[in-house]
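Re: weekly structure request thread

Next one in the queue (98 aa):
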Amino acid sequence: MNELFKKYKLCCGRMISGNKRSPEGNFCVWNANIIVRSVGKVWHGDLNITKEGPLLKQIAYEFGEHLYVLREHDCRFDTENDPIELLISRAVWDTSKD
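Done, posted below.
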């Protein structure tokens, strides 16, 4: 799975803005976590969903599963090992959405 993210230049742990401000009209998730149903957490870092949503959809297509984007506190530290259905319910975006 990591190779798919690297293929699309979405390096794990990356930061896209030091001040954590979204460009106007963009939906960004800072310190995001990406999970898939079959594996759990597969990626973390800053995401600009507006710009990178199509890349995430392509990764999901190539992997064969939806990707779910969660905020940092919803899938890190004490919550990372929560049941997958609970984690999915916390997603702020997934690859089935526009």
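The chain has one domain: 2-14+27-94. The mean pLDDT is 95.
Next request, please.
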